[in-house]
Here is the input.
Amino acid sequence: MKIECKRLSEINKSEIIQLFNHPLVRCHMPLAKNCFNDAAYDAFIADKEQLWTEHGYGPWAFVVDDKFAGWGGLQYEEGDADLALVLHPAFWGMGRAIYETIIKKAFGEMGFESITALLSPSRTRIKGLERLGFQPDGELLIKGERFLRYRLYSSLELF
Here is the structure.
């Protein structure tokens, strides 16, 4: 299995639109209010590219064995590097391997002391996140939506 991290702009627009409109994906994305169309795609890509310009990092597209699996990685959020991971349901079993790729980048080459993960309160299954070492770290409002914040601190054990 080969996992590649690419810029979102390198992925076919229709694949990203399809991911965002998948009902199993949307149910955990409270900021996704309307149908994700061409205009929403253009705004999304512009927003994510701006993160790269302003902060020197941003989310990636994940390609597994030459197939678009989803997007995520690290993006600036309220002063933190926030981990996001949005995978197509066909790739949900790849979450751990992709997560490990992100963590190695975050605490290795990028040198972050901690990262956060924001979850919608609808995400009630969080034991896996806690097993990874994430600790509750308050709440955050983004565009009027409440998110639960979890924090993971760098550890030499990861390497």
